Amino acid sequence: MELRDRVALITGATGGLGAVIADMLADVGTHVAITHLGHRDEGVEVCRHIEAKGRKSFLVHLDQTDPASCDATVEAAVQALGRLDILINNAAWNPALPIPDLQSLTPEIWDRSLNTNLRGPFLVTRAAAPHLKRQDQGRVVNIAGTVGLIPRGSLALAVSKAGLIHLTRCLAVALAPSIAVNCVVPGRLEGTRFVGVTPAAAMKDRSLLKRTPTLEDVARQVLLFCQSDSITGQAHVIDAGTVFH
Ligand SMILES: NC(=O)c1ccc[n+]([C@@H]2O[C@H](COP(=O)([O-])OP(=O)(O)OC[C@H]3O[C@@H](n4cnc5c(N)ncnc54)[C@H](OP(=O)(O)O)[C@@H]3O)[C@@H](O)[C@H]2O)c1
C-alpha cells in the first residue's frame, strides 16, 4: 500500500515509540492523528513536528479504558482528517511491579493493565473498523512486547501483551480481506519513559546481536506492515535476538 496521503491514527503518541512512528509516517507523506491521556503538551509538540513536514495532524484525548472515549476518539479523528486508513495501537500502561510480587498486584491494577493494554486496542479497532473498511485497503498494527512471549517484566503487563499478540491473529481473521492486522513485538527500548530494572549493558549482553533495539528499528517494521499487501496475522519480534537466547 502506498502511504502518501493516507491517514493514520496512533494511540498514545505523546513521546517514546508513538512519536517516532508519527514522525516516520509523516516523512512518507501520511497525515497523522495522535492521542494523549495526561501529556497534552507533549502531544502538541509531536503535532508540530508532523506539520513541519507538510502533513496534517490532529491531537485528541483518549482514555482507552473507557469504551465511549474509544468511539469518540476515532470519530473525532475521521471528522478532522476526512478518512482513516491506518490504526496503530501503541498506547499502553506498565504497572512496573516485579513478577514475583503477587500481593502488590491488586484487582484494580490488574483491571487497569488489562483494560488499557488488551481491551483498549480491541475497542479502538472495533470503532475504527468501519472507517478502515471504507478505504480500498486498511491496516492495523498493534504494539505488543517480548514480555508477552516470555514471563518477564510485570505480570499483568506480560499477560496483557500475550493477549494482544493473539488478539492480532483473531482480528486478522475477523477483518479479512479488507484490513491487514499485524503486531510488532519489541524488546526493551532505551530512551523511553519506562526503563526496566535490568541495566542496558546487561540487556545488550543477553542479546545475540549485543545491542538493544532502537525506536527507529521498531517504527520501520510498523511502516513495513503498513506498506505490505501480503502480510496479516503476524507477530514480528524486534529484540536483537534476546527472546530465544
Ligand atoms: N518502552 C519499552 O521498553 C517497550 C518495550 C516493549 C514494548 N513497548 C510497547 O511500546 C509501546 C510504546 O511504549 P513507550 O515506552 O513509547 O510508551 P510511553 O512513552 O509510556 O507512552 C504510553 C502512551 O500511552 C498513553 N496511555 C497510557 N494509558 C492510556 C489510556 N488509558 N488510554 C489512552 N492512552 C493511554 C500515554 O498517554 P499520556 O502520555 O498522555 O499519559 C502515552 O502516550 C507500548 O505499547 C509499550 O507497551 C515498550
Comma- or semicolon-separated keywords:
245 residues; alpha/beta; Rossmann fold; 7-stranded parallel sheet; 7 helices; 44% helix; globular; binds NADP nicotinamide-adenine-dinucleotide phosphate
Describe, in plain words, how this protein is organized in 3D.
By secondary structure, the protein is of the alpha/beta class. The protein has one domain (7-238): Rossmann fold, CATH 3.40.50.720. The protein has seven helices and seven strands; from the N terminus they run βαβαβαβαβαβααβ. It has a seven-stranded parallel sheet, with helices on both faces. The longest helix has 28 residues, at 107-134. The protein starts with 6 loop residues before the first strand and ends in a 7-residue tail after the last strand. It binds NADP nicotinamide-adenine-dinucleotide phosphate.
Please outline what is shown here:
This protein has about 240 residues and is an alpha/beta fold. The chain has 7 helices and 7 strands.
Give the arrangement of secondary structure elements.
Blueprint: E1 7-10, H1 16-27, E2 31-36, H2 40-52, E3 57-61, H3 67-81, E4 86-89, H4 107-134, E5 138-143, H5 155-175, E6 179-186, H6 200-206, H7 215-227, E7 235-238
Parallel strand pairs: 1-2, 1-4, 2-3, 4-5, 5-6, 6-7
Helix pairs in contact: 1-2, 1-7, 3-4, 4-5
